[in-house]
UniProtKB/TrEMBL annotation:
Localization per record: Endoplasmic reticulum; Secreted
Protein's name according to its UniProt entry: nucleoside diphosphate phosphatase
Primary location group: endoplasmic reticulum
Needed cofactors: Ca(2+); Mg(2+)
Functional description taken from the UniProt entry: Hydrolyzes nucleoside diphosphates with a preference for GDP, IDP and UDP compared to ADP and CDP. In the lumen of the endoplasmic reticulum, hydrolyzes UDP that acts as an end-product feedback inhibitor of the UDP-Glc:glycoprotein glucosyltransferases. UMP can be transported back by an UDP-sugar antiporter to the cytosol where it is consumed to regenerate UDP-glucose. Therefore, it positively regulates protein reglucosylation by clearing UDP from the ER lumen and by promoting the regeneration of UDP-glucose.
The encoding gene: ENTPD5
Natural source organism: Sparus aurata (Gilthead sea bream)
Active site: 154
Self-association and partners: Monomer; active form. Homodimer; disulfide-linked. Homodimers are enzymatically inactive.
GO MF annotations, alphabetized: ATP binding; nucleoside diphosphate phosphatase activity
Pathway field: Protein modification; protein glycosylation
Keywords: ATP-binding, Calcium, Disulfide bond, Endoplasmic reticulum, Glycoprotein, Hydrolase, Magnesium, Nucleotide-binding, Secreted, Signal
Length: 389
């Protein structure tokens, strides 16, 4: 758990503008290119900002977003393919940023769980390929432009993104929203805990759990982590909605004849157990924005609209998990892992983080047409060090 002074944070964000020090007659528009090298895909965010007249936050005018699957870690044994992926995505940046602005537009790549889970030499070889592509590009390549980000920073930067986009970072705003991010390899929870009387200033609480992202949790639940690459392996799981669920080319999972929420919950609980929870710090009034796989699976389960998103209580996810696992729905689940995924999400929220069944989640993919992701916070951090390191 990392604690960061929120006062430091918001004061620093407030001084982003002077730090940019642009020539007086220069256009008020500026650009930044941020790559998200995630475990399941690589994404490019091209941001267009407008400097505000006051010494406040810049205005985010537009985001161009594009993604490619799989993630860079899939090329651990052929790193030049990682370079190719980034080169392809850079074409989006060239189309979006005017040519005259290229040399002053920073390009940055931050990698998350996929590279954290690789051996250091393999991860380094991938990063070197990316660095090479950046160095060849016409964009501005800052120091430390390519690196692996740590999990707590990932959570803090996502918190900054969502609170920036929802207007909660403005000086006059008293409240903030928490964030829940469920990636493929890791999961993050970041929020402003209840003020303790003795506290001088408020601190952000950010926790990241490597190996508790949705894809990693599937493998862990099935005890299949060690089975990868060791030849074919068969596993029985109560969470498998079909007769046969393929998880990996060499690992197949069968249903023991019946699936069921209760038995599946016991399976996923083994993975969630051990996650430190902090129920005393969560306020009833804490609103949590949940995105990534929280959003994707809620859409797959028919709980929210895929464009609008929506509000859900923890108990709504639990109820749908029961329906899917106990085959109480009219339609077969579109993914053979929907029972496991919904049960894992329910278990993570309740037994992992100590959420009540009545806790409200705001399921969100985009806020004002901008991706809910750590990438925007990382870009703001680049323009002015937000003292989160
Ligand atoms: N800008 C983004 C980034 C990720 N995601 C989703 O986040 C999930 C996985 O995130 P990830 O591959 O970055 O996982 P980690 O490397 O953070 O563990 C996938 O469902 C992505 O589609 C998204 O919807 N929008």
């Amino acid at each position: 758990q990392v604690k960061t002074s929120l006062l430091d944070l918001t004061n620093s964000i407030g001084s982003i503008l002077p730090a940019l020090s642009r020539p007086a007659n220069h256009s008020r528009i500026f650009y930044a290119v941020m790559f998200d090298a995630g475990s399941t895909g690589t994404r490019i965010h091209v941001y267009t900002f407008i400097n505000s007249d006051s010494a406040g936050l810049p205005v985010l005018d537009n985001e161009m977003f594009h993604s490619i699957k799989p993630g860079l870690s899939a090329y651990a044994d052929s790193p030049e393919m990682a370079g190719h992926t980034v080169r392809m995505l850079l074409k989006v940046a060239k189309k979006t940023v005017p040519r005259l602005e290229w040399k002053r537009t920073p390009v940055i790549l931050r990698a998350t769980a996929g590279l954290r889970l690789l051996s250091p030499d393999k991860a380094q070889a991938l990063l070197q390929q990316v660095q090479h592509v950046f160095d060849e590009s016409p964009f501005l390549v800052p120091d430390d432009s390519v690196s692996i980000m740590n999990g707590t920073n990932e959570g803090i930067l996502a918190w900054i993104s969502v609170n920036f986009l929802t207007g909660h970072l403005k000086a006059q705003t008293q409240t903030t929203v928490g964030i829940l991010d469920l990636g493929g390899g890791s999961t993050q929870i970041t929020f402003l805990p209840k003020l303790r009387v003795s506290c001088v200033f408020r601190s952000l609480s950010s926790c990241s759990y490597l190996g508790h992202g949705l894809m990693a949790a599937r493998l862990a639940t099935l005890g299949a982590l060690g089975a990868e690459g060791t030849g074919e392996s068969h596993i029985n799981s109560y969470c498998c909605s079909y007769k046969r669920c393929i998880i990996h080319t060499t690992v197949s999972v069968s249903s023991p004849g019946y699936a069921g929420y209760k038995l599946c919950y016991q399976e996923v609980l083994k993975v969630v157990k051990g996650i430190i929870h902090q129920p005393y710090q969560l306020q009833d009034s804490n609103v949590f924005y949940a995105f990534s796989y929280y959003f994707d699976r809620a859409v797959d389960a028919g709980l929210i609209d895929g464009v609008q998103g929506g509000k859900l209580e923890v108990r709504d996810i639990k109820k749908r998990a029961k329906e899917v696992c106990n085959k109480m729905t009219k339609y077969p689940p579109i993914s053979s892992f929907l029972c496991m995924d919904l049960t894992y999400i329910t278990c993570l929220l309740k037994d992992g983080f100590g959420f009540k069944e009545s806790t409200v989640l705001q399921l969100t993919k985009k806020v004002n047409n901008v991706e809910s992701s750590w990438a925007l916070g990382a870009t703001l951090d680049h323009f002015h060090n937000l003292k989160i390191h």
